[in-house]
Specification:
With 383 residues, the chain is of the alpha+beta class. It is 50% helix and 15% strand. The chain has 3 domains: 9-122, Orthogonal Bundle (Butyryl-Coa Dehydrogenase, subunit A, domain 1), CATH 1.10.540; 125-235, Beta Barrel (Butyryl-CoA Dehydrogenase, subunit A, domain 2); 238-380, Butyryl-CoA Dehydrogenase, subunit A, domain 3 (Up-down Bundle), CATH 1.20.140. It has 11 helices and 10 strands. The strands form 3 sheets. The chain has a 4-stranded mixed beta sheet, with helices on one face. A 4-stranded antiparallel beta sheet has the order 2-3-7-6, covered by helices on one side. 48% of the residues are buried.
């Protein structure tokens, strides 16, 4: 596929660097990471050393100060790696968790943490989702209560990527009047460091896909957080979460399109080689047309992703377009995987096949980061 018109030589150079890293580091080792349920810290540190963890962050903290489009390049290439667990380990760190520090952190907090985040010395996670609250952030129940010198956190978070092996957690908690009701938006974000008293990993969660990422339940039991670790304005964390959701949804859309492109490429290789009925599968009109249709849809999805990213770089409100990205791409990648696995036949059902893993990994793309139904309601509000 041709690059979207928004890409510069700098973006193309980044894409080439990412592909070389994935070929050298991820492709040979990804199956081991899947079995281990995590990406080794040394591989993440290597990504930090290469500058992949600070693409949009200030140069003064080791970043490259690139734009939203560069983040789409990163996300797309992570998706093309074929290991969704590896991809989401990286993207949660770079674009779902650490942006809370960059966007809302004060100077002292950035000095304490940001350079180590960019280098990969500290891996981050974000704690918003709970057993009874996902896309509905106002329904979270984790509570922060004021005390001398800080806050006491009590509650639980669920489905937290990088939750087991992370070092720094950005955690949302209700901080207003307890009698304000469960729909209160008085939420505060807190920096919780690994190992503090009252904070623990309840359990590591066993998932259908994204097997090379660690996912956890987090427990806060009278966990003290000092005032120095309040992230942003007290009671204004809900709006910080909503702001960062836009970036998260763009990233997931780009990742989905990277996954879809790679799945189609793998399937084209397979059907052009697989012999059946006195020819190869590619001779069958139904297969040629279905893959052509899916490729056309993926091309449209990619351009929607990059267009929304460009709008963001121009400071143009793009909530509608970002919601379209998340809804369209999250559904499309699942349609692509269904057809690609189908055309792989019985081999596509075997654990040894790449397409089997990719199909499992893709399923969450229409759920995580904003379910399709929620995203379509956001679009509907704006038309």
């Amino acid at each position: 596929m041709h690059d979207p018109i928004y890409l510069t030589d700098e973006h193309r150079m980044l894409r080439n660097q990412l592909r070389r890293f994935i070929e050298a580091e991820v492709t040979p080792n990804g199956d081991e990471w899947e079995a281990a349920g995590m990406v080794p810290r040394e591989s993440l540190k290597r990504m930090g050393e290469l500058g992949f963890f600070g693409i949009r962050y200030p140069e003064s903290f080791g970043g490259a100060e690139l734009d939203t489009i560069a983040t789409m390049v990163l996300s797309e290439e992570m998706g093309r790696s074929t290991f969704g667990g590896f991809a989401i380990t990286v993207l949660v760190h770079t674009d779902m968790a650490s942006p809370h520090l960059v966007n809302a952190g004060n100077d002292e907090q950035k000095v304490r943490f940001l350079e180590k985040v960019v280098s990969g010395e500290l891996i981050t996670a974000v704690g918003v989702t709970e057993p009874d609250a996902g896309s509905d952030v106002a329904a979270i129940r984790t509570r922060a209560t004021r005390t001398d010198g800080g806050w006491i956190l009590n509650g639980a978070k669920m489905f937290i990527t990088n939750g087991v092996h992370g070092d720094l957690y950005f955690v949302a908690a209700k901080s207003g009047d307890p009698d304000a009701g469960r729909r209160s938006r008085e939420v505060t974000m807190f920096i919780v460091e690994k190992g503090v008293e009252g904070f623990s990993v309840g359990r590591s969660l066993d998932k259908m896909g994204w097997r090379s990422s660690d996912t956890a339940e987090l427990i806060f039991d009278n966990c003290f957080v000092p005032d120095a670790n309040v992230l942003g304005e007290v009671h204004r964390g809900f709006y910080a979460i909503m702001q960062n959701f836009q970036n998260e949804r763009l990233v997931l859309g780009a990742q989905s399109m990277g996954e879809a492109q790679k799945a189609i490429e793998l399937t084209l290789e397979y059907v052009k080689d697989r012999k059946a009925f006195d020819g190869v599968l590619w001779d069958k009109q139904a297969i040629r047309q279905r893959l052509s249709q899916r490729l056309s849809e993926v091309e449209a999805g990619r351009h929607l992703v990059y267009h929304a990213a460009w709008l963001d770089t121009q400071g143009i409100d793009c909530v509608k377009e970002v919601s379209m990205v998340k809804a369209y791409c999250g559904e499309l990648v699942n349609k692509v995987m269904y057809d690609c696995q189908q055309f792989h036949g019985g081999f596509g059902y075997m654990r040894e096949s790449t397409i089997e893993r990719m199909t499992r990994d893709a399923r969450v793309q229409s759920v995580g980061g904003g379910a399709t139904e929620v995203m379509l309601e956001e679009v509907a509000k704006r038309i």
